[in-house]
Every structure is written in C-alpha cells, then in structure tokens.
Amino acid sequence: MQDPVSTIEEALLDPSLKDKVDLVLSKTDDGFYRVASADGSINFARQDSGDGSTEYSVVEQLGLNPLSDQATDTVLSMDEEKRMHASGASPASYPNAFESVAQFFDSPDASDVFVCRHPGFDPEGYSGQHGSLALVQSRALLIASGAGTHHGSRGTGTERTVDIAPTIASLLGLEADSRGKFLAKQDGRVLNHLLNGATASHVVVLLLDGCNSNLLWDVVAAGEAPALAGLIDQGSILRQGMTASLPTATLANHTAAITGLHPGRSGILHHTWLKRDTGQVPELLSFEEMFWASDHLAPGVETIFEVIERQRPGSFSTATFEYCDRGASLSSFAMVRGGTTEGLPELSEVRHVDHVGWTASAEYEFLSRVDHLSMVKKQTLQAWQQVDGNPLPTLSWCSFAVTDGAGHASGPHGELARQAIIDTDGRVGEIIAAVDRAGALDHTAFLVISDHGMEQTDNAVVGDWHGALTQTGIGYRDIGEGLIYID
Questions:
Q1: Structural domains of the chain ordered from first start
Q2: Looking at residue 160, what DSSP letter applies?
Q3: What is the pLDDT of residues 355-401, one digit of tens each?
Q4: Single pTM value for the model
Q5: C-alpha distances in angstroms, 128 versus 226, 269, 400, 409, 439?
C-alpha cells in the first residue's frame, strides 16, 4: 500500500498541475531527502564530517535529476530574465539546493511535503512571487561597500543569506569562539573574499525586501539610482547575488541573515507554519503577531544584535522595521510592543515617492509611509543624528518594504517594482548623508541586501492543487499554500 506522502506527491505531479507545481520535496522514512518533478526524482543523503563540512550524495534516481543544475552564474540580466519568462521555460537552476532542502527538514515543525510552485504561478494572483528553490526567487541582492570591504566584484556564487551575520561580526572586529564561530549557533560563514582585512567602526545594513537583483542592476545602469551606484563604485555588487534559504520568504530569511541560521534551525520556519507540539499556526505577517516575531526564535539562538551587546556592553544598535529585532538598542517593533511608537506619516510628509504608484496600488502607498518612518522620526536618521544622546550605532539595520510590495503588485518586470527601487534609493541617499554628517563615513561599511528574489508570474495561470489532494482521500492541511501537513 502506498504511503500518504507518496500519494500526495503523485497527486501534485499530475500533468493537470504542471503549470502550478515545479518540485515536490519530502523526507523519507529512512532519512533521505526526496525531490520529485514531472520528469524525474532523486533521493539524496547528507553526510556531516568531523571537520564541520557537509557532503551530499544522490542515492537513488528515477528519470531526470531535478537538481542537476545548481548554477548561480546564469540569468544575469533583466533582458535574459524576461526572455526566459516569455518562453515559459522551466527554472534555469536551483542554487545550493541540497543544503537548502536538507535544512528545511531539520525543523521539528517541517511539513510532510513542501511544494515548490511553478515560477509562473502564484495562488494569490500576484504578478510577482517567491518562496521556492528556483534561481530567480532564491537570488537575493548583495552589495558590500565602504570600510573593510574590497572594491570590484568578488562573488564566488556560494554566498548565502546565513553568511550576513558572521560577516558583520568580522567586519566589526568581534571575537570568534574556539570553533571559529561568532554566534552561539551558526550555519553561516564569513564572506572573507569580500573583506580587505581592515575593520569598520560601524556597519549599516540596508535590506530591500524582495528586491530582484537584475532589476536593481538595470535601474543603476540607467542612472536612476545614484546612491546605490555610489555604494557600488566604492565596493562591489555580486551580480549572481547570494542564495536565500528555503523557503525563500521574508520572515525565514530576515531571520537567517540576522542569526546566521537556516530557517530549519532558527525556529522561524516561514511567516506561517504548524507548530507541531502546540498546534499553533503563527501568522507573522499579520499586524496582531508580526511585532512579536522574535518570540519564535528557538532556544539558544543568538541575533547579531545580541552578539554585539555581549561583546561590547553599552554599545548602540538599531533595527528599524525589522522582524528579528531581539537585542537591538533601538527597535521600531519594540516601540510598538511598548506602546510608544508614532503613527505613520501623512502622505504629504513622505519623501522619495512616486505618486503614480500610490494611485496604482494601495499597498504601495502604505509601504511608502512605512519606509519613510523607518528612515526618520526616532528611527534610522535620528539615531545617526544622536537626537536622544545615543552613541553612534555600531550596527544600524534598516529594512525597506516597498520593494517587496511593488514587486508583488507589478512583478519585477513592471514599472511599480522599478519605481520602488528609485524611491528607496532616495532614502538610502539620506541615510548615507546622515552617516557622512556624523563624521563616520570613512569608518562605516554598508551592506545592501535583500531577503529573497522576486519572479514574474503568468496571471493567466489560476486555480490551485486542493481538488487533486482532496481526491486522494488523505486528510491534510495546506499552510501558506505549499506546506502540506498530513493529518
């Protein structure tokens, strides 16, 4: 008799769902990781060695190997990306797929099945989507600039979001432990090839949520993002980006960047998932829960903010509109939790914004107001102006959301997504100017990152896979449109 996971897999890979389902992921009873597509499947093993390295090997293959191509150095322009989308081609590759799949199933709350959606399909009808292993969705932005960084592109294709926290620690000259690790638990490694050996007194992280790397490069090349262009001139942009962890989604990879841990080990598996021990289903993108997102971190996990405070007591750090804010001296979300936050600014107060975008999308308007507040009013700019008598920030982490909202609304090939980068560039310019006015520019490193990529969808592809799963007769819960828990 076929087991329930195999039955669910077979239903999802039915030809009638080929425009909605790309890969089906699971973990077998004998401890192997399984990846199946309509053209073939593999089971692979993970072997951890004593020196801290990990090897992966395919132990069974039927038909074509879905993960045979894990390249990062392809689809490196918006023109190429548009051609791939127009052709309806399958994903170009699945970067770092073995590690990304395996870490997901390390979580005690991992779903029985993970559905990687076809790049052209978004069940909510958005024009842009992310969440899966595919190249464009997993490619996160990375620019390194300023103090302690090399000039010129030095990407290797192995960079990951989990590498950001240890790289920040190294840039600041913090002390590693006897294991060579900076955080109590750490999957990431220092991106030494981006660093020149000098330390920075301050690090500014500018997180452009959901920003498509190819689109950003296109905007910069057109001369429409002078602040970001200046950072690239003084550092480097990794054209192949860095690879986000599965799921390539906001909460999972904000947390990965700040803790140095993959989602399967950080405690924050996604923005929504089933906590098997309690039956709770967190909804960390809801206003009722997002401000308390850090409460879901697993025991023993450290944030980079906590590492800085542990090694440099009394130092000052900021986390503005950042979900994983635990340990920051100043936090937008802590203000909300404490009831001391200011309301969003009026539209007339918002700088660096396209008013056409407001007309086209209510979310664009809302997130523009959020991003303006992240920049000013007891947030990033005021911290650098030392309005409250604080020291200059050792780490200043500023998250911008309009790039994600616009990417979903128009897709990365649309005008809203392009305008969101232009708007955000203006805010980035203000922050750089504030660092300069504080006399700290020569001693500050800047990291411009995103948490994941954004891929254009095909709005003609509609529907879901629920009918096919229901016909199996197996009880299941589909959480977040892709995490399948079998009852």
A1: 4-135+457-486 (no CATH), 138-456 (3.40.720.10)
A2: B
A3: 666 677 888 889 999 999 888 877 899 999 999 999 999 999 999 99
A4: 0.97
A5: 25, 22, 17, 7, 40
